[in-house]
Every structure is written in structure tokens, then in C-alpha cells.
């Protein structure tokens, strides 16, 4: 027997209220009233509470950012001591540690010790204030309503995969009354309906970052099973990557400096073709299964454009297979170039067929190693905002590995079909992390199980899962674009790698794929001589020849036009004002700070934000997390901690500002 009754009058009131904001709500959202009613009938207080009580976890947690033990603390101190962080900017070149953030964390940790708080403690308790609620559906709305009034959240975000899971609460929850209550509390209410798993994180992150940490979760037993399945993403690596992928400030300095060195060499600049070039593309990774695929690839070179992601290049060239494109994306200074230059010397020169497509942050000597080369901007890095003259010069979903660049390049060129070989993202054996024929070596340890592409299970690791997730996100983007744009057709994606399963691709044995290609060409006489790229797809050679070179005049014009000094000063002043303001940390200061990043802005204003996000966004999150841990401390101690933390953040803003001006000085000294 339900502990509440269905009120048709309340349903009518809620419907009238929602129609004021969204006329024709039921029809436009395709709500199934009977299904919504049944969800309500199947819910009761005991049922919902028992389900929630059994949920684990009951809250979301972003990566804990402060140093929480003496060992890590001492390690960070030793890393900082290796660098003259206050000296010449040249001392920071090629530094691969997040020194700026380490320094901030050490100051925050020392302050905790000084005010008598144990910095090693990470225990939190549920409580009110400074909280948020993420609701997966509403169920009857009874428990959700109780949670909102008990926890006093500053944001409530309801996520749906069907609007039935919202309307189910219309019989037992007065939404007009609840919205009035939230307005009175100064709290935000967001209701979002998603269509795909990949939309979940994007939708949540679209309302901010900080509310996701220590967010209380609600889910009804009647919530759509599809949404429950989607929600598993909240407990894994993709969720933590919201923080882990913010980058770090010193790396951004190096990206700017290295890109400036490369662009002043006046390279040919990559640009998306206005119309798709079509054709079949073959992407090679460096996985172990590449070795067994060489002869298949040899035959496919007569029908496919061959694209190598980084080190797989050596395996194909040594076998006499034509490589049309090589993609590189890492900031590797000259060590990576030494590998390729040394290999070319051994082979008697650079193959005439290969076209290098490299990121602006790659070492400029690569342009000498590969006579046919073009440069692109990585979509998430500062050089795009600082030096690009067109959005078409960027490749997105291009990392964290070169195979991501290869895959995205094919998609952006407008491939009809993309087939993967050696893109294992793992191995069938823990003792064989990569092909034995590729360039360089790998330190990866495959200590995780994953669903296989051509077999039930393979071994992988966290870094390879990141590569997988970006490839899958690119596939979804292509598929979504095809639904929106009538003239765009998403590529067909085929995976012939004996590695990890990639969602959105068709799994196929290499021999079977080759057989089908031969069937398609039935009646076409086989050409025995090795074809060139222009023989396979002349449109690609025409596109390549149409690419323009970057010039030193363009470089200095963009530098002066985008004026990084000016926008650095403006952003730093805004940050100092926010941290100096006597407003509550929850939620006022957090909202003001996030506005600096989430408010639409010009490309020029984006430059210092990209540079500082790895330190300042994470720094504010670190303080926020500590406040959650200190929830039960005396108010005066909390006040002292907030005041001291704001002063430390202000000091850090000044340090980064000074370093950024030194970067500007360094680049301008090259004019």
C-alpha cells in the first residue's frame, strides 16, 4: 500500500505550472502519461528510501588534490627544489612536472598544519550547506523532496533519459512549491534530458565543475534502466578526467614556446577541407597485432590511404609499405625527432610518399626531418587561441596519443571508411605491450582486464582506456553530426585490431575485411605496381597542395593582435578581486570564479584562462574539498581557513602572472 496517494489535482497544477514555462510540454517532450503514472504507482516512501540506502556510493568525488601524506609531500618539495621557479623562464623549459600546482598545494597543506587541522585526514560526513544533489530521475518525488529540504543544496541537477521520469513525480510533488523554496534559498534547479551516455558528463559539467565534488546522488528504483547504465560513467576514469585533463601551467608555457619556435619556421598549415575528400583510410597503431597484419596492409595499400599514428610508421616503412600520412602530437622536444631522423638515416632518407601532420607543439626540427609536412593546432591547448588564424587549423579529439590524431585526421578529411589495424589499446598478453617492429619502446604495464574486439577478453591499462574513450567520443560526434546535417554522412568504422573493443566500430578479422574489399573490386584489374597517393585519391593531393604556409609576419601580427599581456592582466585582476571579496565560499565565490571560465568570451580572453586553469581551477577545488572535510569544525576555524586560502590563491595568481610576462618577454626577444 503506497504511503501517499496519487493526486490528479496536483498533477493538473504541476502541468499548468510547467506549461507556463514550456507550452505544450507533454506533447513536445513525447511524455507517456500512462508510463509516468505507473512509475508513480510503483513507488512508495519505503521502496525509495530502501533503494537509496543500499546505493553505493551515495556521493560523487572528484580526485582529491591536496597532498595527504608525508611521502608525497616530501616528493613534491624535492621536485620544486630542482627548478628555479622564480628565476629565468628558461629554467622552466622542458620541465614535465606540475610545479606551480605543487607549490600551491604545499602552501595550503602548511596552512592546515598551522591552524591545527590534520592535512592527512580525508574523511567527510553528510551534512547541510555547501552541497549539491544530482538526481537520476525523480521517482515519486517524495524522497527527492525530503533530501532537498534536509541537505539545503545550492544546486539541484535532475538528469533524465526520458521525460516520463520527471512527470512521474507530478502526482505527489508540488513543483511550484519546491521551486519557490529553492528560489528562497538562492539555489539553482536544472532539469536535463540526455540521449546518450557521452552526453551525461558534458551535461553535468555544463553547469559547473565544483558542484560535482561531494555531490549527493539520488536515484529511484523506477528510474529508466538506460539512465542507470549511463550513470556508471560517474564512477570511473571519464569522471575523474574532468580534473585530470585540466593540464598544468608550466606545460602551457612550454606549449607556447615550442609552438612559437615551430611556427616561426613558416610551415605549411593544416586546414580542414571545405568538402569531404572521401575514400577509404587505414589507421595503424603500434599494438602487438600489427605484426600479424603487415601482409594484409600490404594488399590494402592499393585501395586505402595509409595513416600511421606515431611509432607504427617504422614497421610499415621497413616492410616497404607506402605510408601516406604520419601523425604526431606530443611536446617531445628533440628526443622524438632524433628517433625519426636516426631511422631515416638508417633507411637512406625520408620516404617520398609520407606527409607529416604534426601538432604545433612538436619540435620544429621535425619539419627538417620530413620535407612534406604540415602543422595543426591541438584543440584544447593555448597555441590554438594564441596563434591560429582559422578554426579549420585545429584537429580535435587528437590526444592523448598519436593514434587519436590519426583517427581524427581521417574523420576531419571526410573519409568514407576508416579501418583500424594495430589499434589494440592493450594486448592479449601482459608480456607483449606493443608491436616488436615499431619505433621506440613502451613502459606500459597492462594490469586491467577489458572486453576484446576479436576475443572475449584482453589486458589493458588506464592510459589506453583514455585513448579508447577519446576515439569513442569522436565516433559519437561523427554520428551525431550525421543526424543534424543532411549533407554529412558519418564514416563507416571497422576495427581489425586484436585488442580492446571500441564502441561504434564493426569488429572484423583482417582477412575477412580484405576478402570483402576484393569482392567490392570484383572485375577491377589489379595494379601490380605500387600506387601513389594521387592514384588512390587525387583529391587529397590537391587538398594538400592548396594548404598555405604560416609566415613570420602572420606570427607577429597574431601575437600583437591577441595581446596576451593585456588579457593576462585583466584575468589576474578579476581573480584577485574575487578572492578579496568578502562573500561566502559556498556558493557565491565558487559561482563568481566559475563564471570566469564558463561565460562565453573571445579567443583572446581565452589565452590566460587556458594557461591558468591547471593551477587555479584545481586550486579552488582543493580548498573546496578541504572545506567539505572540515564540515564539523568550529565556524571560526572554517573562517580562518577560508581567509588564509584566499590569500594563498591571490599570491599564486601573482606568481603565474609574473611567469606569463616572462614567457612574453622570451618570445618577443626572438623578433
TrEMBL record:
Residues 279-426 form the 6-hydroxymethylpterin diphosphokinase MptE-like domain. It comes from the Bacteria. Coiled coil: none annotated. It holds the Pfam family MptE-like. Residues 10-222 form the Glycosyltransferase Maf N-terminal domain. InterPro entries: Maf_N, MptE-like. This is DUF115 domain-containing protein. It comes from Prochlorococcus marinus (strain MIT 9303).
Amino acid at each position: 500500500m503506497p504511503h501517499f496517494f496519487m493526486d490528479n489535482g496536483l498533477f493538473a497544477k504541476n502541468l499548468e505550472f510547467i506549461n507556463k514555462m514550456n507550452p505544450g510540454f507533454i506533447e513536445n517532450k513525447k511524455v507517456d502519461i500512462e508510463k509516468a503514472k505507473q512509475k508513480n504507482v510503483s513507488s512508495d516512501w519505503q521502496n525509495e528510501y530502501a533503494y537509496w540506502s543500499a546505493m553505493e556510493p551515495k556521493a560523487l568525488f572528484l580526485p582529491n588534490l591536496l597532498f595527504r601524506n608525508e611521502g608525497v609531500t616530501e616528493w613534491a618539495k624535492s621536485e620544486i627544489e630542482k627548478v628555479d621557479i622564480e628565476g629565468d623562464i628558461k629554467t622552466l623549459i622542458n620541465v614535465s612536472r606540475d610545479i606551480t600546482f605543487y607549490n600551491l598545494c604545499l602552501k595550503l597543506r602548511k596552512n592546515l598544519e598551522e591552524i591545527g587541522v590534520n592535512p592527512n585526514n580525508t574523511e567527510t560526513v553528510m551534512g547541510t550547506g555547501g552541497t549539491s544533489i544530482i538526481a537520476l530521475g525523480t521517482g515519486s518525488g517524495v524522497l527527492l523532496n525530503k533530501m532537498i529540504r534536509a541537505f539545503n543544496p545550492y544546486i539541484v541537477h535532475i538528469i533524465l533519459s526520458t521525460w516520463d521520469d520527471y512527470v512521474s513525480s507530478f502526482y505527489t510533488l508540488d513543483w511550484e512549491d519546491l521551486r519557490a523554496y529553492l528560489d528562497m534559498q538562492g539555489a539553482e534547479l536544472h532539469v536535463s534530458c540526455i540521449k546518450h551516455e557521452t552526453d551525461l558528463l558534458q551535461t553535468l559539467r555544463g553547469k559547473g565543475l565544483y558542484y560535482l565534488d561531494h555531490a549527493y546522488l539520488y536515484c529511484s528504483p523506477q528510474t529508466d534502466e538506460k539512465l542507470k547504465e549511463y550513470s556508471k560513467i560517474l564512477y570511473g576514469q571519464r569522471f575523474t578526467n574532468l580534473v585530470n585533463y585540466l593540464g598544468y601551467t608550466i606545460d602551457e608555457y612550454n606549449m607556447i614556446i615550442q609552438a612559437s619556435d615551430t611556427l616561426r619556421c613558416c610551415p605549411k598549415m593544416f586546414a580542414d577541407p571545405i568538402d569531404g575528400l572521401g575514400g577509404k583510410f587505414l589507421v595503424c597503431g603500434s599494438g602487438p597485432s600489427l605484426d600479424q597484419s603487415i601482409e594484409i596492409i600490404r594488399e590494402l595499400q592499393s585501395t586505402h590511404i595509409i595513416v600511421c599514428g606515431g611509432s607504427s610508421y617504422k614497421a610499415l616503412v621497413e616492410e616497404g609499405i607506402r605510408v601516406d600520412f604520419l601523425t604526431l602530437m606530443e611536446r617531445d622536444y628533440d628526443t622524438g625527432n632524433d628517433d625519426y631522423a636516426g631511422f631515416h638515416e638508417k633507411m637512406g632518407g625520408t620516404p617520398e610518399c609520407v606527409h607529416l601532420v604534426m601538432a604545433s607543439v612538436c619540435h620544429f626540427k621535425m619539419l627538417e626531418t620530413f620535407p612534406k609536412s604540415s602543422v595543426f593546432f591541438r584543440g584544447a591547448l593555448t597555441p590554438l587561441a594564441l596563434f591560429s588564424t582559422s578554426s579549420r587549423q585545429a584537429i580535435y579529439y587528437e590526444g592523448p596519443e598519436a593514434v587519436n590524431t590519426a583517427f581524427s585526421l581521417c574523420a576531419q578529411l571526410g573519409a568514407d571508411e576508416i579501418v583500424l589495424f594495430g589499434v589494440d589499446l592493450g594486448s592479449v598478453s601482459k608480456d607483449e605491450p606493443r608491436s616488436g617492429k615499431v619505433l621506440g619502446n613502451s613502459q606500459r604495464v597492462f594490469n586491467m582486464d577489458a572486453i576484446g574486439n576479436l576475443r572475449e577478453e584482453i589486458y589493458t591499462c588506464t592510459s589506453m582506456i583514455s585513448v579508447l574513450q577519446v576515439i569513442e567520443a569522436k565516433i559519437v560526434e561523427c554520428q551525431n553530426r550525421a543526424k543534424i546535417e543532411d549533407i554529412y554522412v558519418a564514416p563507416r568504422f571497422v576495427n581489425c585490431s586484436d585488442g580492446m573493443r571500441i564502441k561504434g566500430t564493426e569488429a572484423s578479422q583482417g582477412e575477412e575485411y580484405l576478402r570483402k574489399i576484393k569482392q567490392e573490386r570484383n572485375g577491377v584489374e589489379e595494379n601490380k605496381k605500387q600506387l601513389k597517393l594521387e592514384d588512390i585519391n587525387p583529391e587529397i593531393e590537391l587538398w594538400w597542395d592548396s594548404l598555405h604556409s604560416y609566415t613570420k609576419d602572420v606570427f607577429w601580427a597574431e601575437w600583437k593582435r591577441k595581446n596576451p599581456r593585456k588579457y593576462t592582466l585583466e584575468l589576474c585582476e578579476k581573480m584577485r578581486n574575487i578572492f578579496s571579496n568578502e562573500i561566502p565560499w559556498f556558493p557565491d565565490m565558487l559561482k563568481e570564479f566559475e563564471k570566469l571560465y564558463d561565460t562565453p568570451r573571445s579567443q583572446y580572453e581565452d589565452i590566460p584562462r587556458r594557461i591558468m586553469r591547471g593551477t587555479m581551477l584545481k586550486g579552488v577545488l582543493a580548498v573546496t574539498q578541504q572545506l567539505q572535510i572540515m564540515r564539523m569544525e568550529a565556524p571560526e576555524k572554517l573562517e580562518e581557513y577560508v581567509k588564509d586560502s584566499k590569500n594563498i590563491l591571490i599570491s599564486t595568481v601573482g606568481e603565474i602572472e609574473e611567469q606569463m610576462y616572462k614567457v612574453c618577454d622570451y618570445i618577443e626577444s626572438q623578433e
